[in-house]
Amino acid sequence: MTYDEVLEQSKKVMKGCHCCPVCNGRACSNHMPGPGAKGTGTVAVRNYDAWQDVRIQMDTLCANQPADTTFHLFGQTFQYPIFAGPVGHVNLHYGDVLDDVKYNDILVPGCKAAGIAAFTGDGMQDLTMETACRTIEACGGIGVPTIKPWDLATYQKKLDLVKDSGAFAVAMDVDAAGLPFLKNHIPPAGRKTEAELKEMIDLSPVPFIVKGIMTVKGAKKAMQAGAAAIVVSNHGGRVLDGVPATAEVLPQIVSAVDHKVKVFVDGGIRSGVDVFKALALGADAVLIARPYVNAVYGAQEEGIKVLTEKLGAELKDTMEMCGAEDLAAIDRTMIH
């Protein structure tokens, strides 16, 4: 099965999503609920376009040997520096063939089998985090539960589930503070001070990843609070109009943290070439969310395998055509 065939299959069962050949944010625009945004949807488009504005520096005067795409993180080894991003409320946004429980039951083991790991989503129903953590436990801890920015008491309950799962890391998507369904939810969820974030991070027995960093100031606060990694992310362009694309702010954030924490990035990354560009701009790895939704809806575990192998093959080819023998060799000289 090819990825085009996976998309054709996903069209038969998904709603809201147009299953475009390239997920660039244009067709879904600001459709909400759905894969669009609460605003105009222009930031999702900008995320994609920004990667296309980065050019590759081809150099084939180099050793003719296969590139090594192996990625090491927090004691784990992965085949590629690619993670499936966290997605929640899939039945509302993408079609009721799957709910969050069924989605994660496919995504987590599918990603592990493909040589990568999945970030799992969180939601208003306790069952979402409970079952995601059970699935991660069944996969030997290969998965990253992502907790919404709840109040401390709710966070502690969810962190207990993470501990029981044996997950190798935990994340919090602080950019979810802008989601409409969280704004008026009880218990409260939303923005966090540096001190509040530090209190939460200090309770975690595993490396803590802060997702939703878009400024140097935010990156420094996350680092000072004890984050082991940050994800440069504007929540797929869904939560605030007028912000930059992730590719636009990534280099300055990478420079500011100066290798003291791992830096990941998401938003509009749709090919292995885009992955290469992100690494060349200084990211350690990337998160890709929406295409993995299509993969799961279209062909379940096989869809995940097809998409991951496609991204990995594109990344490897780009590395070989630019003279990068491994991930550490990718640098700013390889883009224009």
Secondary-structure blueprint of this entry?
Layout: H1 3-11, H2 42-52, E1 71-73, E2 76-78, E3 82-84, H3 90-93, H4 100-113, E4 117-120, H5 126-138, E5 144-147, H6 152-165, E6 170-173, H7 180-183, H8 194-202, E7 208-213, H9 216-224, E8 229-232, H10 246-257, E9 262-265, H11 272-280, E10 285-288, H12 290-322
Parallel strand pairs: 3-4, 3-10, 4-5, 5-6, 6-7, 7-8, 8-9, 9-10
Antiparallel strand pairs: 1-2
Helix pairs in contact: 1-12, 4-5, 4-12, 5-6, 9-10, 11-12
Binding site for FMN: 211, 233, 266-270
Catalytic activity: (S)-lactate + O2 = pyruvate + H2O2
GO molecular function, one term: oxidoreductase activity
Protein model, in words:
This protein has one domain (3-326): TIM Barrel (Alpha-Beta Barrel), CATH 3.20.20. The chain is α/β, with parallel strands linked by helices and 336 residues long. The two termini are 35 Å apart. Helix 5 (126-138) runs parallel beside helix 6 and helix 9 packs across helix 10 (246-257). The model has no long low-confidence stretch (mean pLDDT 95). The chain contains 12 helices and 10 strands. Helix content is 42%, strand content 12%.
Task: Describe this structure in a few short sentences.
With 336 residues, the chain is an alpha/beta fold. The chain has one domain (3-326): Aldolase class I (TIM Barrel), CATH 3.20.20. Helix content is 42%, strand content 12%.
